[in-house]
C-alpha cells in the first residue's frame, strides 16, 4: 500500500501530519488503494509514511498544511523532553498515558506487553519514539494494536534508526497487518533485525506477502512466526524465500500446520540456504516423509547449528532418515526430537550415527521422552568417549542403575570445592583452568568436553549435567564468575 500525501512543512524528527483542533483526536487513515485527498486545516489529522532524508533544525516556513503537533516555535522540538513529548502525543490522540513508559522512556529495554494500548495508545508511543535514541528493544505483545497500530509503528521506524528489536506478537494483525509489515520490510530501510510476529492469525496469503518481502530484505536476522495458521501452501512460499534469503539467522515456525508437502518445501529451501543457524519447527506434522527431507538437509546444509523438530509425528523410520544426515553433518550442535514416537531402537540409530561421524559438532540430542535400558547407556558411554562434548537427554527406566541413581545426589559443586580446598585454590581458579582463554565464560560444548577429559574431579554424565544447569546462561555459554570465592 503506497499512500501519497500533500506537501507539508518539515517538522524536525517527526512524520505526523494533521492539525490539532477542538474536534476529535487524530486517528490513522483506513487502508485504501487510492491516495487520500488533501485535508483542510479543519479536518482530522492523519499519519504520513514519508521518510525524511535529513533532520533539519531550521524553522520551516509556515504553510497551510497541518501538523499533529502544532508547535509555535519549532525550535522547542529539540529541547522538549522525551516524557513531555509523549504526554503531548497522548493528548493529541486522546489516550491515557502509560506510567511505565514514562518511567522507562530513557531505558534501552521497554516492556509494554499486556498494557491494553490499542491503536491510539500505540500511535502515542510511536510519536514519542520518532526522535528517541535510547530504546533499542520494544515489547508490545498482546495490546490489540491491529493494523492501525502497525501502521504507526512502521512509520516511526522510517525515522528511528536506534530501535533494533520489536515484539508485536498476539495483536490480531491478520492479513491487513501482514501487508503493512511486508511493505515495510520491502523498503529495507530500518534498523530492526529482530521481529516477533507470533500468534497474529497469519495465514497463507500472509505467508506469501512476508516471503516476498524477505526475499529482498537482508536486515532481519531473527524472525518469530510461531503460533500462526500457516499450512502447506505457506510452507511452499516460505521454502522459496529460504532458498534465496541471505539475512535470516533464526526462524521460529513452531505451532503452525505444516505437514508433508509443507515440510518438503521448507526443506528444499533449506538445502541451499547458507545463513540460517537456528530453526524451530516443533509442534507441526512433518511425519516420516518430512523426516526424510530433513535428513537430506542435514547431509547438505552447512549453516544450521540448532534444529527443533519436537512433536512432529516422527517414528523410528523417520529417526533412521535423520540419522543418515547426522553421519555427514559437521555443524549441527543441538537436535531436539522430544515428544516424537521414537523408541530405544530409533534412539540407538541416532547416537550411533553421531559416533560414526568424527567431525560431528553435536552437543545436545533431546529424546527425553524415550525410555532406555542399561544397554543403551553403555552404548552411549562409548559415544561419549568419541564425542565428550555431547549430552543426550533421555528418560531412564526406573531402577536402571542404583549406582548412578546415588550419583544423582552427589552435588558436583561439593566435589569441585573439595578438590579446590585440597589444592588451596578457589572453585573459579579450577574452572578457569579448563578454559584456554582463561576467562569466566566458556561455550557449553567446550566446557563439557573439558570436564570429561580432565581427571582431577571425575564426574559422571548426570553430575556434569547438573553442573552445567547451574552455570548455563541459556545462551550457549557457561558463566562461573558468580562462584568467585576467596581462597582457603
Determine the mean pLDDT: 83
Work out the helicity level.
Answer: 25-40%
Q: Distance between the terminal alpha carbons, to the nearest Å?
A: 69 Å
Q: Measured on Cα atoms, how large is the radius of gyration?
A: 27 Å
What oligomeric state is this? single chain
Q: What is the topology, as strand order, of the major beta sheet?
A: 3-4-5-6-7-8-9-10-11-12-13
**Which shape, going by the Cα principal axes?**
globular
Q: Number of helical segments?
A: 17
Helical/strand content category? alpha/beta
Residues in β-strands, percent: 5-15%
Count of β-strands: 15
Q: Strand count, sense and closure of the main sheet? A: 11 strands, parallel
Low-pLDDT ranges? 1-79, 402-408
Structural notes for this entry:
The chain has 17 helices and 15 strands. With 488 residues, it is an alpha/beta fold. Mean pLDDT is 83; it is low at 1-79 and 402-408.
Amino acid at each position: 500500500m503506497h499512500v501519497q500525501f500533500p506537501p507539508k512543512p518539515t517538522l524536525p524528527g517527526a512524520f505526523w501530519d494533521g492539525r490539532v483542533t477542538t474536534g476529535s483526536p487524530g486517528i490513522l487513515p483506513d487502508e485504501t488503494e487510492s491516495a487520500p485527498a488533501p485535508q483542510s486545516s479543519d479536518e482530522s489529522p492523519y499519519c504520513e509514511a514519508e521518510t525524511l532524508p535529513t533532520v533539519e533544525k531550521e524553522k520551516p516556513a509556515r504553510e497551510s498544511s497541518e501538523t499533529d503537533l502544532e508547535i509555535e516555535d519549532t525550535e522547542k522540538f529539540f529541547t522538549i523532553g522525551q516524557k513531555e513529548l509523549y504526554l503531548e502525543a497522548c493528548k493529541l490522540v486522546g489516550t491515557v498515558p502509560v506510567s511505565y513508559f514514562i518511567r522507562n522512556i530513557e531505558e534501552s529495554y521497554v516492556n509494554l506487553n499486556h498494557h491494553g494500548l490499542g491503536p491510539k495508545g500505540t500511535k502515542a508511543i510511536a510519536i514519542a519514539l520518532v526522535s528517541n535514541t535510547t530504546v533499542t528493544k520494544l515489547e508490545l505483545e498482546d495490546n490489540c494494536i491491529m493494523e492501525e497500530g502497525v501502521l504507526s509503528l512502521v512509520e516511526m521506524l522510517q525515522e528511528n534508526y536506534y530501535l533494533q528489536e520489536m515484539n508485536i506478537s498476539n495483536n490480531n494483525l491478520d492479513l491487513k497487518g501482514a501487508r503493512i509489515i511486508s511493505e515495510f520490510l520491502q523498503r529495507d530501510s530500518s534498523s530492526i533485525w529482530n521481529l516477533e510476529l507470533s500468534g497474529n492469525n497469519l495465514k497463507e496469503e500472509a505467508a506469501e506477502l512476508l516471503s516476498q518481502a524477505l526475499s529482498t530484505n537482508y536486515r532481519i536476522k531473527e524472525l518469530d512466526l510461531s503460533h500462526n495458521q500457516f499450512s502447506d501452501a505457506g510452507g511452499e512460499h516460505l521454502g522459496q524465500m529460504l532458498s534465496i534469503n541471505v539475512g535470516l539467522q533464526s526462524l521460529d515456525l513452531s505451532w503452525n500446520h505444516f505437514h508433508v508437502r509443507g515440510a518438503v518445501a521448507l526443506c528444499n529451501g533449506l538445502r541451499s540456504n547458507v545463513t540460517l543457524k537456528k530453526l524451530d519447527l516443533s509442534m507441526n506434522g512433518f511425519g516420516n516423509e518430512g523426516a526424510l527431507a530433513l535428513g537430506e538437509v542435514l547431509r547438505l546444509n552447512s549453516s544450521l547449528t540448532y534444529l527443533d523438530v519436537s512433536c512432529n509425528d516422527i517414528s523410528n523410520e523417520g529417526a533412521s532418515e535423520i540419522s543418515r544426515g547426522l553421519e555427514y553433518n559437521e555443524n549441527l550442535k543441538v537436535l531436539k526430537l522430544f515428544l516424537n514416537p521414537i523408541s530405544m531402537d530409533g534412539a540407538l540409530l541416532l547416537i550411533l550415527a553421531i559416533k560414526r561421524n568424527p567431525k560431528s559438532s553435536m552437543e545436545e540430542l533431546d529424546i527425553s521422552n524415550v525410555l532406555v535400558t542399561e544397554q543403551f547407556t553403555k552404548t552411549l558411554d562409548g559415544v561419549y568417549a568419541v564425542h565428550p562434548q555431547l549430552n543426550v537427554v533421555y528418560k531412564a527406566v526406573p531402577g536402571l542403575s542404583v549406582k548412578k541413581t546415588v550419583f544423582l545426589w552427589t552435588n558436583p559443586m561439593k566435589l569441585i570445592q573439595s578438590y579446590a580446598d585440597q589444592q588451596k585454590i578457589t572453585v573459579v581458579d579450577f574452572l578457569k583452568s579448563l578454559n584456554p582463554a582463561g576467562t569466566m565464560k566458556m561455550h557449553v560444548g567446550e566446557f563439557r568436553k573439558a570436564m570429561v577429559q580432565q581427571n582431577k574431579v571425575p564426574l559422571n554424565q548426570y553430575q556434569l549435567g547438573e553442573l552445567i544447569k547451574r552455570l548455563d546462561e541459556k545462551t550457549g555459554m557457561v558463566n562461573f564468575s558468580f562462584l568467585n570465592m576467596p581462597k582457603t
